[in-house]
Amino acid sequence: MESDGEPSAFPQKRVGRFLLKFFGSAFLLAFSYRLLLSGATGSFVFSGSPASEIPAAKGGNLRRVSDYPSVEKTDAQYTRLAEMALHGRKGDSVKEQCDLFSGEWIPNSSGPLYTNSSCSFINPFRDCLTNGRPDTGYLYWKWKPYGCDLSPFDAEKFLKAMRNKSWAFIGDSIFLNQIESLLCLLSQVHSMSFVE
């Protein structure tokens, strides 16, 4: 309680707590931006020798970290990263520069490459058609980058390029949907099992 003529310390405590929370939040926001987002504006590609040309260590397949190619930021080579991954050689490059992330959805009269009934990897609770989605129009669209064409996904070529390589997929439920989609595409040429 306050006595006559003496103001309470309560408003000062509230202001002090507010300022502490405000500056603490601002510091955490700035720190997380610096830590997580400041390096995310560039693109990372491998430069130097392809991994297939790097000699293995004496003990077998183990390699030292210094044996791997360094990582550099280069915008010019960014669009060739997927092509390099599929072919495994630096000499193969996309003839034209193609920004895969700038484009539009266009009608696709051929329809989807797989359906919920043809792929066993789609979890029942994520099966839109079985769970009552009334429209099927969304199945007849495809992504078209501006200024170039995307070739259809070649599952056999992808599996050949990824043979003897280890992959780990880490992400949220949206990313899990993308992995299920990849498995559906790959299961058209090779049977496989899903491990969680």
Could you characterize what this model shows?
- Belongs to the PC-esterase family. TBL subfamily.
- The chain has helices spanning 10-37, 81-87, 155-162, 173-186, and strands spanning 44-46, 71-73, 103-107, 141-145.
- With 196 residues, it is of the alpha+beta class.
- The protein has a domain at 44-58 and 71-94.
- The chain has a two-stranded antiparallel ribbon with strand order 1-2. Strands 3-4 form a two-stranded antiparallel sheet.
- The model is unreliable at 39-68, 70-79 and 88-94 (pLDDT under 50).
- Helix content is 29%, strand content 8%.
What is the total tally of β strands? Answer: 4
Largest sheet descriptor:
2 strands, antiparallel
Going across the biggest sheet, name each strand in turn.
Answer: 1-2
Rg computed from alpha carbons, rounded to a whole number of angstroms: 26 Å
Distance between the termini: 60 Å
- Indicate the percent of residues in helices: 25-40%
Q: How much beta, percentage-wise?
A: 5-15%
What structural class do the secondary elements suggest?
A: alpha+beta
Element string (H = helix, E = strand): HEEHEEHH
Organism: Elaeis guineensis var. tenera
Keywords: Golgi apparatus, Membrane, Signal-anchor, Transmembrane, Transmembrane helix
Protein name: Protein trichome birefringence-like 25
Transmembrane segments: 18-37
